Amino acid sequence: MPTITANGIELYYELHGPADADVLALSNGILMSTASWAYQTAALARHYRLLLYDCRGMWQSAHPPGPYSMAQHADDLAALLDGLNIDQAHVGGASYGAEISMVFALKYPQRTRSLIAATAVSEIGPLLRSMTAQWLAAAAAHDPGWLFRTVAPLTFSGGWIAANQALLEQARARYETLDFDAFLALLESFLELDISAELHRISAPTLVVAAENDILKPRPYSEIIARAIPNAHLAIIPHAGHAAMWEQPGLFNALILGFLAQQGEG
Fold this sequence. Notes:
Blueprint: E1 3-6, E2 9-16, E3 23-27, H1 38-45, E4 49-53, H2 70-83, E5 89-94, H3 96-107, E6 112-118, H4 126-140, H5 144-155, H6 158-163, H7 165-175, H8 180-191, E7 206-211, H9 219-228, E8 233-237, H10 244-247, H11 249-262
Parallel strand pairs: 3-4, 3-5, 5-6, 6-7, 7-8
Antiparallel strand pairs: 1-2, 2-4
Helix pairs in contact: 1-11, 2-3, 4-5, 4-8, 5-7
């Protein structure tokens, strides 16, 4: 299992694709792992040196006691890049990972070649805070079944749920192995996010991706981000819920590759 000491903790990481290609670093959603990028890995690694990793508190990386913060996650990523001798990277992610990526672009502009923020927010409105409170309650109770029943309807569209019961059962089983204390620290880190007023400072070329049927982090959040970041491009993935990377992987991958190609890389 490849790990590296970064910012004082052990981070699990994977490198895919040509060793001499430009680096694309993707950060996970809050309940994702590196395996969650299964529909993206082969497509993206054909063109880029793809860096996947588990953030602190996630799966195969270290789970130090909280509190965590988005700034700390950004520092972890910077230290991971240092350990791998990577000066600059295209950075991005989905949901929680996209929010880490935005904070990274703010803290480390000279290391950010471009930014990809998929199904993300830069602030937390009352409805999202209320939905997150249900996740907090289930996690505080260390109840994997309750957490899964709360998360799944907000993460996937109804049509995808109906057609993918086997995949959902596999996902539910993973909740049995969740470190609830670390997950609580991740949730509490998310609830501190409030960077809309800072986004104008991001200078990297930016792709913002929203999903048409996202209940958890709907399109208006992506519009806030796209308006605030100079020259950001907003793309909408139709017929997909919050987990657009799973529900519409072909379009998700094409958007990323097309955007990166426009940067003259790869």
